[in-house]
Amino acid sequence: MSVARPGLRAVVLDIDGTLLDSADGIVAGFGHALRAVGVTPPDDATLRSDLGPPLVDLLPALGVPAGRLAEAIAAYRTFYFREGLQQATVYDGVVEALTTLAARHPLGTATAKRTDTARATLEAHGLTRFFGVVNGLGEDQPSKAETLAETLELMGGVDPADAVMIGDRRSDVAAGRAVGTRTVGVLWGYGSRAELESAGADVLLEHPRQLADLLLS
Length: 217
Hints:
- One of its GO terms (cellular component) is cytosol.
- Its EC number is 3.1.3.18.
- It comes from Microlunatus antarcticus.
- The structure is a single chain.
- This protein is an alpha/beta fold.
- It folds into 2 domains: 10-21 and 88-216, Rossmann fold (3-Layer(aba) Sandwich), CATH 3.40.50; 23-87, Putative phosphatase, domain 2 (DNA polymerase, domain 1).
- Helix content is 44%, strand content 14%.
- The protein is built from 10 helices and 9 strands.
- The chain has a 5-stranded parallel beta sheet with strand order 4-1-7-8-9, covered by helices on one side. A two-stranded antiparallel sheet has the order 2-3. Strands 5-6 form a two-stranded parallel ribbon.
- The two termini are 14 Å apart.
């Protein structure tokens, strides 16, 4: 499947592991959240392997009791807004790719972050200017697929067949396939080639500079 066929009307991107290497701040936030509710965090390597799912799914899997989940999420968010989001770095080549893409296609996000967190993260790293729609998980769209579908609605009711979803984890590819977009898996983030291939990504990319080449070809 060609992701650059005529009629492409929306390019939707994940944030963590796609635009930003945000692992250090997120992992530190996981540890802060777990300790806040009396749970001993696993080692950083284990926490890094868990990057991707929303907090409401991830924290219980790390041992947070259901009755203290809201407290753990609040602790994570407090830490992340105070310190964590500043620890991220923009991947080399991302700004150049977004500059080129935004001149040709509307851009949006579909991320496991809450929308306010996503916006604050992009603003902290000078990326908000590229996106017409910044959208993340919320109470009304608790899954990545629902978030992607809402993003396309917010972008003017774009037909999924005229859109592409770009991300670094299985959940990004699965969301695109569920909604009906084309899918691009990126290998500079937190997911492996095997993970993205088994998820069924239409195309895999090795470096951010390939994004513009692929979608404008």
